[in-house]
Every structure is written in C-alpha cells, then in structure tokens.
C-alpha cells in the first residue's frame, strides 16, 4: 500500500478531544518500558517530547524519571489546552513539565540530553524535519526514542487493526486511526530516512502489531 498523508495538526476541537479521551495506556506503558529497557544507565535531566499532543506520554515520562525537567512541544493549540488542564490535576508534576506551542522545524537554540517522540512522524509531510530537529537540539550523548505506527500492507489490513483496537470507539477516532495507519511509514522507509540524516546506527524495530520504535545515542 502506498502512503496516504494526512493533515499534520489536530486543531479541530472534537477531533482533539476524541483523541485525548481515548485509552492509550498500553502504548504509553510500551513507550516507558522501551526507554527503560534500551537506556538502562541513562538518567534523563533535560527532556523534550516532540509532538506531545495532550501530554499522556510527557507526564508519564516525567513521573517515571523524577529527576527530569520536560518540555512538551506541539503545533496544535487545542491539544496543548487539553494538556495544560491535565497537568493542573497532577500537582506533583507542575514544576517539572511545561508546554510549548510551536511547529517544527524550530531554529531556537536548545540542548537536551533526552529526546522522545510518539506518533508524530506519521503526521509529517516531510519526515526529515523530525530527524533534523533531533540532531539540532540533541546534545552529544543524548538518548533518543521515537515510537510510531507502521503502515500495514493494505487498506484491508488497516481496517482490521482498527476493528481490533477501536471497535467501540467514536467514529471520528476510528477514522483518524485508519488514516494514521495509512499515513505511517514502513520500517524500510524509516531506515532510509535515518541513512539520509546520518543516523544509520539507530535501531529500528517492530515492537507491537501496529508500532515500531527507533532509538539510539547521538554522537
């Protein structure tokens, strides 16, 4: 199946709230476990979450790494309004988590020892933007973990995945999930992106029946 790009931002309120209210706890646990297993000696201090959406993984990562300060970045003001409200309910995290409304690429000078991202890559019409931003903002020795959906072999398979995991979800969420699967990249395409970016030593592995992950240490 050829890739079918989707809009880069979730700005429409009903769409954003539907996404924010969905149960992504399994994906969140998978992400946190992947980081712990692949960077057992790394102690995150200054962290950026690229494409943080409503902030589930941002706040879960902050809770898992109490010594960290984390900035969640997203281009959707609607998503960050939801994230801001959620953070208010997490009093133990309010001093360690902040939100930043900006679209990538961003030329601001910053330096992070940990760079994470979940479900941003498939939204980008130009995927090299993500890898360049990681290189621009990552300090030498920084830990990088990117997780995303991967594209099924056919629309029929994408529809089966939607039925498997979102059969009872609102129609708008089912539609967005299907579109995201069709917009996602394959493992081979991501390998090519990393080679172009000079990140060919990063690992790319399928980590579930719908997710893949990319991780490595910046030189």
What is this structure's SSE topology?
Blueprint lengths: L12 H9 L3 H14 L7 E5 L5 H9 L4 E6 L2 H12 L8 E5 L10 E7 L9 H10 E12 L5 H12 L4 H13 L3 H11 L5 E4 L4 E7 L2
Parallel strand pairs: 1-2, 1-4, 2-3, 4-5
Antiparallel strand pairs: 5-7, 6-7
Can you tell me the CATH class? Alpha Beta
CATH architecture annotation: 3-Layer(aba) Sandwich
Assign an overall shape.
Answer: globular
Query: What percent strand?
Result: 15-25%
- CATH superfamily assignment? Vaccinia Virus protein VP39
Total count of helical runs of at least 4 residues: 8
Strand order of the largest sheet: 3-2-1-4-5-7-6
Strand count: 7
* Most strands sheet: 7 strands, mixed
- Give the C-alpha Rg: 16 Å
Q: Please name the CATH topology.
A: Rossmann fold
Q: Tell me the count of domains.
A: 1
Structure class: alpha/beta
Q: What is the helix fraction of residues, given as a range?
A: 40-55%
- The succession of helices and strands, N to C, reads HHEHEHEEHEHHHEE
Mean pLDDT: 94
Kindly, what is the distance between the CA atoms of the first and last residues, rounded to a whole number of angstroms?
35 Å
- Low-pLDDT residue intervals, each spanning 5 or more residues: none
